[in-house]
Amino acid sequence: MKKTVIILAALAIAATAYAQPWHAKGDVYCVPGCWNFDAGNLLNDLGVSGDAVSGDGIYSALVTTDVGAIGKYSWKAARDDWSDAYPGSNQFVHVGVLAEQILFTLDTNANGDGWLPDQNIAWSDHYAPAGTAFEVIGAAAEIGTWADGVVATNVGGVHSVTVNIATLGSYDFLWRADNDWDLQTMRADGGASGGGNLNFTTVNPNTNVLFEFNANTGRTRSTVLTNTATENSSWGSMKQLFR
After folding, report:
1. For a FRET experiment, which of 30, 33, 94, 166 has its CA 20 to 30 Å from that of 80?
2. Residue 213 — very low, low, confident or very high, per pLDDT cuts 50/70/90?
3. Are 163 and 138 contacting, i.e. CB atoms less than 8 angstroms apart?
4. Rounded CA gap, 61 and 78, in Å?
């Protein structure tokens, strides 16, 4: 009997630990101590306090910053006891005015739609100062050989650019604020200050690759576009075709 009680108690403790809520922890919110938590930075999936849709697996909160100066800070979406935290390395958040409200989100869904990260996507609506341009930069010569990337066009928060890659191969890349490594980078782990690079592979020379960064969701993807074969036709063959 005692053994059964011990097992049940252990299961109850495990269940309680698993059920711990998510918080937006960081040095942008320090009422109970920086990188700590209370009701003010609690992420919820109840359709209130900044959460758009109840029960959709996306946890959100409007958090009022309490820092003493505008500038760049760091945060993560984390469990109370740090048993889970995303992204793997800190994500930057930019405070423009004192006591600013910032929307923090954590998408826990397995999306399976080709965008990265696929699951547990931490993001904020203050990922960069307003009007920041983003560029794709990487190992291929056409995207700067890690020196100077290609600036994307921003339409509705989706930054995109198509680049022709001359030499077939596999290449690492990432997104960064234009000519700036410090404001925000987008890698395989999403908007993380560190972590692995993104990658694309072409199997033919002179292949167009579409690069996209969705600043509304904090996700990226690269799409290797299929080259359309063209047939060189002589004027004589054209006349034969339309006889």
Report:
1. 94
2. very high
3. no
4. 13
Residue 11 belongs to a domain: no
> Two tokens at 4?
């059964």
Q: What is the CATH number of the domain that holds 144?
A: 2.60.40.10
Residues 31 and 113 in one domain: yes
| Other Cβ atoms within 10 Å of 76 Cβ, number | 23
Task: Look up tokens 């600036």; give the residue.
Answer: 151
Q: State the pLDDT at residue 18.
A: 53
Q: Answer yes or no: do 191 and 156 share one domain.
A: yes
Token pair for 73 = 């800070």
Q: How far apart are CA 31 and CA 23, in angstroms?
A: 13
Report the candidate in 120, 136, 13 with the shortest Cα–Cα distance to residue 57: 120
Enter the DSSP assignment of 142: G
Q: Which of 155, 180, 233, 167 is nearest to 72 (CA)?
A: 180
Q: Are residues 105 and 150 in the same domain?
A: no
- How far apart are the C-alpha atoms of 27 and 24, rounded to whole Å? 10
Domain count, the chain: 2
Residues 6+ away with beta carbon under 8 Å from 236 = none
Both structure tokens of 3: 């053994």
Q: Indicate the pTM of the whole model.
A: 0.86
